[in-house]
């Protein structure tokens, strides 16, 4: 018969969850902003201070820069400095496995059955995996899980560890702007419990403590270099749409984000059938995060984390009801052992695939030369081309790492933390938008264009005297403005004296 804890099947269901996380959190490809995070962290470390104004661009040079990720960038840089790329990869993996381990511990605090545990947790891991790149948001996923863990201890184990919440917030508010999720969570919990006390006259032990720790957490959000200005900035910027995939809404009637949608439907179904027995704060919090995730794709990992213990618990309750009504639904000893062996085999398969990725990449981070201007950046560097560099925002931080201070970029992944809205809007144009590109070139005084291949730039070759085509490969194309600053380099180009290295393009970071 299937039991709750300490069975062979229960043990191997946990092994399978951790093995799945090991595999799915082991992607070794570079995130577009990784170069910038390391560069900014290095500058923090070397100067001993934060840059309050942007030094890296020419379109927003001197514009106020609110860096809500400064501590994460510092940690990334120190990790890279002492442990190189493997340190970043294994640090990311350690965070992912820690989150899964805490979710398993939360499931232990409640009713759970091995099959429900395996199904709910693996579904959540798959739904969350896209967010697990080497990015500061990893810390938000970790700290959000810690907040949930503290609340599970409080409501399901009756252990008061709420004093950890403001301490965690002091670190979180300097690691990533996602601290808003933790702050919103404690506001929601306290508000819901207060509503229960007032509207339903339910006894709520220690309600005063919840309000006290909410106040402490709120004050802790001010423990950052920008004080209340960070909160004002986040309020203003989060209300403005962003033309970035991860900030785009999820299409309801499509097959995209299928695992997230399955989790959402499962949550709503379990909610509908068990609403009288639920912890109201938990159900309300998950419902709000579902809404946020459908509005912005980047919130799907938060939903997966918050919903996993809920789904495991109520699936287990449902399975219990079915087994009690139908004896044929009960698993015997042979079935338990057979499933446990299957879980063991699947765990081995997941571990093998995860290890294979690390071995194939030689423990390094992969940089796809079809996605980043690897050859073009090297061409600019070896030929000492300098000046204002106009480029797509996804290449901005790559260029900052490789070409700054000799080149300043027109835009990069820092987005509204460093750039005025007008600069951002001007850069978000389609590759084939001829009028948009003409307007961009006329608006900003660039000395160099580094762009993806497109019809507009192919047509630009030889047709406009103010721009001279000097380089292209399968990924990027480079033009120099025909001005006095570039006169010597253009002469060398026309004489065939520019260097074009014959080295093969490296696929390894940086």
Describe this structure in words.
The chain has 510 residues and is mainly alpha-helical. The protein folds into 2 domains: 8-30 and 66-360, no CATH class; 374-494, D-Maltodextrin-Binding Protein, domain 2 (3-Layer(aba) Sandwich), CATH 3.40.190. It has 19 helices and 5 strands. It has helices at residues 8-24, 34-47, 70-108, 114-128, 137-156, 164-175, 179-199, 207-220, 228-238, 258-274, 280-295, 300-325, 333-360, 374-382, 396-403, 421-427, 434-443, 455-460, 487-494, and strands spanning 387-390, 407-409, 448-452, 467-472, 476-481. A 5-stranded mixed sheet has the order 2-1-3-5-4. Strand 4 (467-472) and strand 5 form a beta hairpin. The chain is globular.
In brief:
The chain is mostly helical and 510 residues long.
């Amino acid at each position: 018969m299937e039991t709750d804890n300490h069975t062979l099947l229960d043990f191997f269901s946990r092994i399978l969850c951790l093995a799945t996380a090991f595999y799915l959190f082991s992607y070794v490809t570079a995130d577009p902003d990784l170069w910038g995070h390391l560069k900014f962290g290095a500058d923090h470390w070397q100067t001993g201070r934060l840059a309050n104004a942007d030094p890296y661009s020419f379109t927003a040079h001197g514009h106020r820069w609110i860096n809500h990720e400064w501590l994460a960038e510092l940690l990334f840089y120190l990790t890279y400095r002492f442990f190189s790329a493997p340190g970043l990869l294994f640090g990311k993996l350690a965070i992912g496995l820690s989150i899964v381990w805490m979710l398993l511990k939360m499931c232990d605090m409640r009713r759970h059955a091995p099959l429900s545990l395996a199904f709910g947790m693996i579904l959540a891991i798959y739904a969350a995996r896209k967010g697990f790149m080497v990015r500061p948001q990893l810390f938000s996923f970790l700290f959000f899980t810690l907040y949930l863990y503290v609340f599970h201890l409080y409501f399901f184990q009756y252990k008061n560890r709420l004093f950890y919440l403001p301490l965690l917030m002091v670190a979180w508010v300097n690691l990533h702007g996602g601290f808003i999720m933790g702050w919103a969570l404690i506001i929601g919990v306290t508000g819901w419990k207060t509503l229960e006390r007032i509207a339903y006259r339910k006894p709520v032990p220690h309600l005063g403590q919840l309000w006290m720790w909410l106040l402490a957490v709120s004050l802790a959000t001010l423990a950052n270099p920008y004080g209340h200005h960070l909160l004002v900035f986040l309020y203003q910027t989060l209300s403005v749409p962003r033309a970035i995939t991860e900030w785009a809404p999820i299409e309801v009637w499509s097959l995209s984000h299928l695992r997230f949608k399955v989790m959402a439907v499962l949550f709503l179904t379990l909610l509908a059938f068990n609403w009288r027995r639920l912890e109201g704060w938990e159900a309300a919090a998950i419902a709000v995060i579902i809404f946020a995730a459908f509005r912005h794709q980047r919130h799907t990992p938060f939903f997966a984390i918050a919903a996993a213990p809920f789904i495991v618990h109520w699936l287990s309750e449902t399975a219990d009801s079915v087994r009690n009504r139908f004896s044929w639904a009960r698993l015997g000893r042979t079935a338990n052992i057979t499933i446990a062996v299957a879980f063991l085999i699947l765990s081995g398969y997941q571990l093998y695939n995860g290890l294979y990725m690390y071995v194939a990449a030689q423990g390094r981070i992969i940089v796809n030369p079809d996605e980043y201007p690897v050859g073009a950046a090297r061409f600019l560097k070896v030929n000492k081309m300098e000046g204002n560099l106009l480029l797509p925002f996804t290449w901005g931080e790559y260029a900052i790492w490789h070409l700054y201070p000799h080149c300043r970029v027109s835009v990069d992944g820092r987005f509204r933390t460093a750039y005025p809205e007008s600069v951002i809007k001007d850069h978000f144009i389609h590759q084939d938008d001829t009028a948009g590109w003409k307007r961009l070139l006329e608006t900003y005084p660039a000395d160099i264009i580094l762009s993806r291949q497109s019809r507009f730039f192919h047509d630009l070759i030889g047709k406009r005297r103010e721009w001279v085509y000097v380089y292209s490969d399968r990924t990027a194309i480079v033009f120099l403005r025909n001005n006095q600053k570039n006169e010597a380099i253009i002469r060398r180009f026309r004489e065939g004296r520019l260097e074009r290295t014959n080295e093969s393009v490296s696929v390894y970071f940086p």
